[in-house]
Amino acid sequence: MPAQGKHRRTKTGAISRGVLAAGTGGAVLALPLIGATGAHAAEQAAPAKAVAAHSAPASVAKSSPKTYTVVSGDYLAKIATAQKIKGGWQKLYQDNRDVVGENPSLILPGMKLTLGAKASAPAEAAPSKAAPSAAETAAPAEKTAAPAQETAAKTADSAASESNSSGWTTPVENANVTTQYRASGASWSSGYHTGSDFQAASGTSVRSIGAGTVVSAGWSGSYGNEVVIQHSDGMYSQYAHLSSLGVSAGQTVSGGQQIGLSGSTGNSTGPHLHFEVRTGPSYGSDVDPIAYLRSHGVSI
Fold it and tell me: Is 77 in a helix, a strand, or coil?
């Protein structure tokens, strides 16, 4: 965080047979084409047409996808948990890859995500179709391609972490410290800067300094979006003011793995990464983060 910022933790008569279908285009009220009295006569006159008319609304109701509009502070794991998406954030990303793009950690307020539409598609197929169309035949190949791309991304992450023989690295590439640990001033509630600030434009990849387990990932008052990771030596690393989170609590990460993107959320005067090393998971147990990195063979 720049020297001027400071961290303070916050205390914390009904229409007959109508159908309402929620879709990407908004809510639609499907009204019956005939009244209850005329329906019986119509069914006797043209039973095949009547059956088709009654079947259509049910099909629409089942196939109509549910959408979610991204708001500030959202990330895929958070949305998947809140919306109870089977398959977690990976399934949510797979269904919305054309909207989110190549980086699942970067989602922006206003994006409209489809929830579970592809999962329900096979059940909607009409049993009377004689043969699948060319588009339907291609669909399984597209679904198979997405997991392959996810596997490639994981392999790339693994390769990045293995490039450092010690398994430890800086939290951002081209690490340039802009505010040193223990810089003094009235701007901070503790009287001094509890971490080291790294220069990082908004959207810069932020990575775990070493292997460990995510203790928390989410909003944390003045720190904005933050991630806290516990490492094998019992120490904790913290990454604050993130614009987007790419991990969730309980997840195991490797050294060098991307855990989010830098930003300026919370009490921040501009995009950067506030980085701390602690003896415990919470504020007030800080130690010199640069000295800690150097003790693990990181050149900085």
Answer: helix
CA–CA distance, 3 with 208 (Å, rounded to integer): 24
For 87: left if phi > 0, alpha if psi spans -120 to 50, otherwise beta; the answer is: left
- Give the tens place of pLDDT for each residue, 216-267: 999 998 899 999 999 999 999 999 999 999 999 999 999 999 999 999 998 8
* Angle, CA 55 vertex, CA 52 and CA 57 arms, to 5°: 120
What range does the domain containing 246 cover?
177-295
Please provide the DSSP assignment of 144-208 as one string: HHHHHHHHHHHHHHHHHHHTSTTS---SSTT--EEE-TT-B-TTSTTSB--SEEE---TT-EEE-
272 is known as an active-site residue: yes
Domain containing 39 — which CATH number? 3.10.350.10
Residue 130 domain-assigned?
no
Q: Please say which residue of 54, 89, 124 terminates a domain.
A: 124
User: Whole-structure pTM over 0.70, yes or no?
Assistant: no
Place of tokens 């913290």: 238
C-beta atoms surrounding 152 within 10 Å: 10
Residue 95 CB burial class (10 angstroms; 0-12, 13-18, ≥19): buried
Catalytic residue among 231, 241, 272, 274: 272
Query: Over the stretch 41-64, which tens digit does the pLDDT of each residue have?
Result: 444 444 444 444 455 454 444 556
Cα(55)–Cα(139) distance, integer angstroms: 25
